């Protein structure tokens, strides 16, 4: 007999993650080979655009590297500087840093009102989308081969 429980439980959440990781490792030769290597660690990669005169944040990119993939989590440019090529500079800098750290590919997500056309112009390929996530918005997934 089993019972269903619905409370938030951080300890069970951690245990669930450990068990899924063990199952995935047992079932995937690729993940087994990855375990215990430097590629297994998630490494942050940040690129900041700072106003020289004030030191204020004018833009930035926050990403991480895992399994020789660059995953762009956040990219933002202040409204006053959009359309000036600064987003391209940030993205290219992050991609170059990722290449020097052994990355073969990049991936990211963006919403329909954000920057799908920008990422296509930067050489990213549409890998998929989810309509109505959240309701009224489409989320896009993009990838790019870095080498």
TrEMBL record:
Protein's name in the database: GNAT family N-acetyltransferase
* Biological classification of the source: Bacteria, Bacillati, Actinomycetota, Actinomycetes, Kitasatosporales
Report domain N-acetyltransferase positions: 1-147
What transmembrane ranges does the database entry give? none
SUPFAM superfamilies in the record: Acyl-CoA N-acyltransferases (Nat) (SSF55729)
- Report the source organism: Streptomyces niveus
Q: Pfam families attached here?
A: Acetyltransf_1
């Amino acid at each position: 007999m089993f019972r269903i429980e619905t409370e938030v439980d951080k300890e069970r959440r951690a245990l669930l993650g450990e068990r899924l990781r063990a199952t995935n490792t047992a079932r995937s030769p690729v993940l087994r080979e990855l375990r215990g290597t430097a590629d297994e660690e998630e490494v942050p990669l940040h690129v900041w655009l700072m106003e020289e005169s004030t030191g204020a944040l004018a833009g930035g990119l926050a990403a991480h590297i895992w399994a020789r993939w660059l995953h762009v989590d956040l990219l933002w440019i202040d409204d006053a500087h959009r359309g000036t090529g600064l987003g391209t500079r940030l993205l290219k800098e992050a991609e170059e840093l990722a290449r020097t750290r052994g990355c073969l590919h990049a991936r990211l997500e963006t919403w329909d009102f954000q920057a799908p056309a920008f990422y296509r112009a930067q050489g990213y390929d549409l890998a998929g989308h989810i309509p109505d996530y959240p309701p009224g918005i489409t989320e896009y997934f993009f990838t790019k081969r870095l080498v």
